[in-house]
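Appendix B. Raw example, untouched.
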Amino acid sequence: MNTNHRHQVLFHRHAGNPILQASDWSYPVHTVFNPAATRLKDGTTLLLCRVEDRRGLSHLCAARSTNGIDGWVIDAEPTLRPEPEKYPEELWGIEDPRITFMEDLGKYAIAYTAFSRGGPGVALALTEDFRTFERLGLIMQPDDKDAALLPVKIDGAFALIHRPIADSGAHVWMSQSPDLRNWGSHRMILHARKGGWWDANKVGLSPPLIKTERGWLMIYHGVKHTAAGCLYRLGLALLALDAPERCLLRGDSWVFGPEAPYEQTGDVGNVTFPCGYTLGDDGDRLNIYYGAADTCIGLATASVRELLSWLDDNSGGPVSMHPPSVAPAGALR
């Protein structure tokens, strides 16, 4: 067991971090961060990176690697650009994608944040090859973000994890749809705690949920306001397989946070923000790809088995009840 100040180390930073940064791009960019991730049919790792230009607007660009670590081949131009003429919700860019391979559709679904005058909302696109895309447009109205689809249907309907901001706070919700366009059955599944907790201000999904035999493993981010600014760190929870709105376990403490220099210093310091993972052939090894300080991309490895074991030992007993679930303001019904 690796420990740091007597805490178990669950996420191991790659020695070559950051694995991708703006200087790796062939066209002018300012920063690259918050990548979605997936493994293609041939085993190639694909990252769909958020790329911000010097105007402050973001688009998405794919990078591919045979080993998921180095030798990245980056698209020579943006892979998915904002199209505000057709999709006005993308006026100020598209951000923070998360990829899910949809078993029923045989396609990859990309949930991303569309940013415009009304604020951030959740948009969706489908693709088979990351060359051409079918855009479904906005599926969750502002303010809403941190979204990903589950790879399988729940009770015969598609399921979306997302984080609306409402009067009740910034909590994680699940919504369902028969067709990926019309959404309802909104239920809160993970609430932001109160007081001095590390995740007391707001919480949100980090990478898409990880399916295990015991349930859906959730890596989520919590934000704490401090006198020096916000701290973005990661925690763990376990949701029921057949009813993801039911939280089985929730860790009491954070498990990964900004400690390396490239995570503490950048455009937005003290941020570790993963939007993607890949799972090894052994079904246990995780490659977690994260944005560091909103400036570059880091890689950390973890074990599904160790994360679940840690949850067993550090969940603090029964999961506390969250505030009454109310449909998020502005959600499509």
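End of appendix B.
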